[in-house]
Every structure is written in structure tokens, then in C-alpha cells.
Amino acid sequence: MTETEYDLIIIGGGAVAENVADRAVQGGLTAILIESELVGGECSYWACMPSKALLRSGIALRAAQNVEGTKQAVTGDIDVAATLKRRDSFTHDWDDSSQVEWVEGAGIGLLRGHGRLTGVKRVSVEASDGTVTELTARHAVVVSTGSDPVLPDVPGLADVSPWTPREATSAKVIPASLAIIGGGVVAVEMATAYATFGCNVTIIARSGLLGTQEDFAAEMVGESLKKLGVTLSLGVTPTNARRGDDGVALTLSDGSEVVAAEVLVATGRQPRSTDIGLETVGLTPGDWLDVDDTLLVRGDTNHHHGWLYATGDVNHRVLLTHQGKYQARAAGDVIAARALGHAVHDGAWGAHAATADHEAVPQVTFSDPEVASVGLTSRAAEKAGYTTRVVDYDLGWVAGASLQADGYEGKARMVVDEKRKVVLGVTFVGQDVSELLHAATVAIVGEVPIDRLWHAVPAYPTMNEIWLRLLETYGRP
Ligand SMILES: Cc1cc2nc3c(=O)[nH]c(=O)nc-3n(C[C@H](O)[C@H](O)[C@H](O)COP(=O)(O)OP(=O)(O)OC[C@H]3O[C@@H](n4cnc5c(N)ncnc54)[C@H](O)[C@@H]3O)c2cc1C
Ligand SMILES: NC(=O)c1ccc[n+]([C@@H]2O[C@H](COP(=O)([O-])OP(=O)(O)OC[C@H]3O[C@@H](n4cnc5c(N)ncnc54)[C@H](O)[C@@H]3O)[C@@H](O)[C@H]2O)c1
Predict the structure, then answer these.
(1) 179 neighbors 55 (Cβ within 8 angstroms)
(2) Whose atoms come closest to the Cα of 206: which ligand?
(3) What is the set of domains in the chain, with CATH numbers?
């Protein structure tokens, strides 16, 4: 057994943890990552990157098929094997050596094994060969362990070995049919990818699709999924699952049955916090870790207040990589500032506060059409008590969009705070809208007054002219 001391110990070695460590080391601290699987975590190997690689070939093919002159040149079907091979290049065949190299180059320590808190500023790491290393943190411990998929309590479901998003993003063979339980982002993206590969997909979702987005986004994505051949079973939930000769048979709450070669469960996430020693510091195993805006774990037991932080999925603020990495930058910096006695800027929009998590989160669903949104939906803004005005515009009427694709179909919505005359939320739905999103994020985070936005002139003829059309529809004061 060896004993080692670091300024900062981070349990987890995902994308978020890497960024916490990097900022803390750049701020003058020593830091070590504890990782039990692959350095880089879910996003690199079983989530963002492989899923987007699975989707990209189909999106590019359809984009080419939507332009007269190009569609005549692109007449073949998607090459599934080549798409899977390209996906494998992004996951480096599930080998993390390049990330380990980056960690070492950044001056960050790395210990492989399962990390558990054993008390205040103390972490025990159990390697796969059973070796145990006890670590002590001089200043802080960050929990950045991510989340696991939820398996709904449906009789028989666990016994049919359903796919989780990991199997769906890393599959080497595309099944003939796939039943997807869930109607969120994973369900919609994987249905788009697998239907493009020729798989017979059924989505089973107890409510509609993309429940946190504007209603028109869900409607447009639903329509396009149907055109891709996806069967939508909405408003139902499975009540039983069993595996037979033809695959898995799911009985649904309306009495109908779906039979598919494989079942993908995409019904949300739970915190990866059951076996990390939370009980040793007065917290409850299996809980999400509630944090303040500097990512410090809240709780009134004094012995953990002041040294324990949580970043990324495990704090349940926003389950997205880019937002977790934003939290990581704030956390790494504030840990260094507190440790070295420097000034702490933890007020709204301060360098050490993850303020944007509350009402300025961008997200893209890489369905076809894409859904790109930031800030509050019209529904969420109203619920939050804002006096709003909602402005809608048809993206297909914008010159840049009509050039982008023949018969371009898309919609945009801007939600305005009528008291402050600033933008609260924007949603774009359509081909290639993901690259329009950042201007909306800047407008929201910068609280740019609507009358100043008129001076941000979009280049002609780009799809960004949607901004001018939204402003014209809103009216110039
Ligand atoms: C299919 C899918 C697609 C997605 N696509 C996107 C997308 O396009 N864009 C986006 O922004 N988000 C996307 N997400 C969400 C994104 O993957 C997560 O928000 C992100 O991975 C969270 O990062 P994290 O570092 O908090 O957790 P993780 O990436 O899960 O990293 C946690 C790490 O900690 C390790 N660990 C856990 N417990 C211990 C322990 N006790 N000891 C040692 N190590 C431990 C794990 O092995 C893991 O490597 C997607 C999610 C899914 C499921
Ligand atoms: N492009 C991206 O940014 C991206 C892509 C994938 C995932 N993610 C993130 O990963 C997280 C997990 O995604 P997810 O899609 O698993 O979760 P989610 O919370 O987005 O969606 C879960 C869905 O499952 C449905 N559901 C739950 N229980 C059910 C049941 N018993 N029967 C039928 N339907 C049921 C819910 O109504 C909901 O539609 C999300 O926070 C998401 O933002 C992001």
C-alpha cells in the first residue's frame, strides 16, 4: 500500500474531469485523475463522438440528395460498413492511449482503478488486480463520475439483455430490427442512424418525442422519422418483455406487441454515485450531488463543506458534455483560487460561477432535421414567470436556406423577454441549423438588447439571415 498526497484528487477521468484537472494544474496545483475504465469517458467512446459519427454519413448523403445537380451524382445507398469503420476511427477502437498521452503532457497524474471517498479529503483507489492506494487531498476532491442508463422496471426487461446507449453506439453489426424504449435525444438520434442503415426501427415512448423542446421541433422530427420508415408508438410504455425465437417481444400498455431483434433502452440517466464512499462524508450513496454555482457540494454537515466538489452529469445540472466542461473550467479555477488565497469571483457571470447552466444552455439534437436550441423554450419561459413574446419564422423562406437545399424545410422561434427586451431562447429546426446556434447563445449570454441586434448584420445569402427575419417579424421599436 502506498500513500500519496495531491492538492486535488478527481474521481473519474471523463471529459469533464480532464478539464477540471487541466485548469487546476494551470492554476498552480497538483492534480490526479482516478479512472476505472477509459480516460475520456462516455462522450469519447460510447456517447457524443460515436453517435455523431454514426449519424454524419446519413446526414451528408441526404444533404447531397437535396441539391439538384448533386443528387444525380449521388445515387447509391449508404455504405454501412464504411460508416461503422469511420465511427471506430473516432473511438480509436476503444483505446485511450492518445488521451493518456494528453493527460501526461498536461502534467496531470493518472491512477487507474475504482475510486472511493473514505473520509474528509481521503480517497482509496482499488486497481483491477486488487492493489489499494490511499490518497490524500491537500485542498479538494472532485467527484466527476458521470451517469449510468436507467433501466425501467418492466417485468422481463432485464432478462432479455437489452441494449443501453453503449451497445447502440458501439455495435459492429446492425440488427434487422430495433425497438427503442424512450423518446428523448438518444432515442431520436439512434432511430435516425439505425433507420438510415436499413434497420426496421420502432420508438416506444410514454409521452411525445423530445419533451423538453418546443412542440414544433418534436412534430417536425416525428414526421421525418416516419418518412425514414420509423414506427412511432407514442403515449405507451412496455409492460412485459420476453425473448423468443424471433427476437424480443414487448407487450405495450395499449395491449399491442412489438417484436424486434434487439431492444434499446434510452429512458434517461441515474447518478454513478452508489459505490464511491459518499456515506463516509455524510452523503447518501446513489444520490445526485447537489452543488452551488462554484460546483461545491451543498450539505450542512460541516465536515464536507468546503472541500468536496462535483462536476458533469453526476451533479444533474445539465447532462451535456460542453456544459460539464464549462463547469469544469469554473471548478478547476475556483479550487486553485481558494487553495492559493486568490480572489474568488462567484457572483453571477463571474469567472468562478457556472451561471449559464441555469438559463443559457445550448443543445443540438443531431436528428434530420437537426434541432438546435439555447436558453428557455416558450413554455419554460412562461413557467419561470417571464413576460414573453414569441416570434416564429419559416426558415425555408430565407434565401440562404433555399440555396442550402431544394425545398428546404425548417422553422425558427425566438422567445423575447418583453420587460428587458432581450432574447431568452431560440430554437432552430432544419438541415444544418446546428452551426447557426452559437450566435443565439452569444445574444442570450450577452443579454444583447433587441435594438442592438438590428446592427448585427447577417451576411447575404446565408441561413443566418433568419436573424433579420425574426427581428423584422418582432418589429423595430
Ligand atoms: C448516446 C449518447 C449520446 C450523447 N451525445 C451527446 C452530444 O452529442 N453532446 C453532448 O454534449 N452530450 C452528449 N451526451 C451526454 C454526454 O455523454 C455526457 O453529458 C458526458 O459524457 C458527461 O461527462 P462526465 O465527464 O460527467 O461523465 P463520463 O463521461 O461518464 O465520465 C465519468 C468517468 O468516470 C469514471 N468513473 C466513474 N466512477 C468511477 C470511480 N468510482 N472510480 C474511477 N472512475 C470512475 C467512468 O469510467 C468515466 O470514464 C450523450 C449521451 C449519450 C448516452
Ligand atoms: N445530442 C445531444 O446533445 C445528446 C445526445 C444524446 C444524449 N444526450 C443527453 O444524454 C441524456 C440521456 O438521454 P436519454 O435520451 O436517455 O434521456 P432523456 O431524459 O432525454 O429521455 C428519456 C425519455 O424516455 C422516456 N421514458 C422514460 N421512461 C419510460 C418508459 N418506462 N417507457 C417509455 N418511455 C419512457 C421519457 O419520457 C423521455 O422521453 C440526456 O440528458 C441528453 O440530453 C445528449
Answers:
(1) no
(2) 2
(3) 2-40+96-148+270-356 (3.50.50.60), 158-267 (3.50.50.60), 369-474 (3.30.390.30)
Q: Is the peptide bond before 165 cis (omega within 30 degrees of 0)?
A: no
* Residue 367 alpha carbon to ligand 2 centre in Å: 14
81 Cα–ligand 2 center, Å: 27
pTM as predicted: 0.97
- 324-329 long-range contacts, CB within 8 A, separation 24+: 324/14, 324/15, 324/16, 324/144, 325/15, 325/16, 325/19, 326/354, 326/356, 326/357, 327/16, 327/295, 327/354, 327/357, 328/16, 328/17, 328/18, 328/19, 328/20, 328/23, 328/144, 329/19, 329/23
Compute the distance between CA of residue 195 and CA of residue 9 in angstroms, rounded to an integer: 43
Residues with CB under 6 A from ligand 2: 152, 181-187, 189, 204-207, 211, 237, 266-269, 319-320, 363-366
Q: What is the ipTM of this complex?
A: 0.98
* Residues 109-161 pLDDT 10s: 999 999 999 999 999 999 999 999 999 999 999 999 999 999 999 999 999 99
Give the Å distance between the CA of 187 and the centre of ligand 2: 7
Which mutation among 186, 210, 251, 272 tests ligand 2's pocket best, with the greatest number of atoms within 8 A of CB? 186
266 CA: nearest ligand 1 atom: 53
Ligand with an atom nearest the CA of residue 127: 1
DSSP secondary structure letter of residue 291? B
Unique residue bearing C-alpha cell 419554460? 380
> What does the pLDDT look like over 43-57, one tens digit per residue?
999 999 999 999 999
Q: What is the pLDDT of residues 365-403, one digit of tens each?
A: 999 999 999 999 999 999 999 999 999 999 999 999 999
Which atom, in ligand 1's list, is nearest to the CA of 323? Answer: 11
Instruction: Give the amino acid at 374.
Output: V
Query: Which ligand lies nearest the alpha carbon of 218?
Result: 2
- Of the bound ligands, which one is closest to the alpha carbon of residue 187? 2
Q: How far is the CA of 137 from the centre of ligand 1 (A)?
A: 24
